[in-house]
Write a structure and sequence with these properties.
Largest sheet: 6 strands, mixed
Number of strands: 8
Structural class: alpha+beta
Helix content: 40-55%
Strand order of the largest sheet: 4-3-5-6-7-8
Distance between the termini: 64 Å
Number of helices: 14
Amino acid sequence: MPDNLRVALPAAPDELESRPPAEADARRQIRITSRQALLGLVPILLGFRPEASAVILGTKPPRGTLKISLRYSLDDLAAPDVAAYNIGHALNVLTSQDSGLVMVIGYGPDAQVAPFIKLFREQAGKHNVRVRELLRVEGNRYWSYVCTDPTCCPPEGRPFDPAPDPVLTGLLPEGVPGVLASREALADLVAPLKGAAAHSMLLATQRAEASIQLVERARGSAGHSISRHPIAPAGIRAVQEAITSYRQSECTVSHDEAGWLLISLRDKWVRDDAWSRMEADHRQAHLRLWLDLTRLALPGSVAAPASLLAFVAWQSGNGALANVALDRALADDPDYEMAHILRRTLDCGMDPSKAKVPMTPEQVAESYTSSQRK
């Protein structure tokens, strides 16, 4: 039984008000004292109910405070060599995060879960990682590969209520409206529009492209030199205005506004300026903005907003949302450098506290203006 697992919840508003400013980020420790509570915690940590998955929870001894959660698709681990590689990756991430005590939950039939559990157990000892619990979940029953007491863990499995504990809802990842039915439902949050809405966005994008072409022809006829970033000044202003609007209200962009923003973000100067403004204090507003634009983006314009969404999702501690955003970015542009950088960062299990903006807006401007002068 995971009687030493502790998870940190944000302090209640009244607690924050009663604390000195230096302690305003204090967090409450919630103790998980049963297998059922542990199983109720996992969907909240992920933001969705896992299926055909291996979930690894890394904790820091001796108090057992939760440090990191990792999820792998069991369908992707069917081949022993692939499973061994991913287990090695997981153990390297766990040790780098000082998580020497782990719990593993496999979601699926025993024939699929047991080989993974066996291999994980074997490799964990080589990495000085101690296994506290190994569970399998199928339907509304669970089995323990550690407990051998039939009164506690009967061979037919122990029934449990899969509903998440309401006390733990404060752990739901930002950007997720509640515990979703599956990872596919999470991916739907960033899926493209369909039907009439998609057609409306297509027309808006075509109008934006026509406007940009008119501006460029006017500049050319007036004798202006051709810039490598012709829409950067106007695009940067437009994106900055959208960022400010989302920070100040619960607004959404119109299709015409989105068309102009998305075409502007194709310019890496515009994208990098936006990236430099992703301060963590405004991450909830930024999540809404990039979720909206990622959904509205047409092929050829997805990679930038989806990568910015991935950055803010990682910054918010929502690795699952970050990964589905990166899936969309790389499907749109398999060579998109920002998406690859963020994917490597997430694969390393980098703590969200490290999600700092890479440059200031002034540094971004200097880097691009200096490159144009060469």
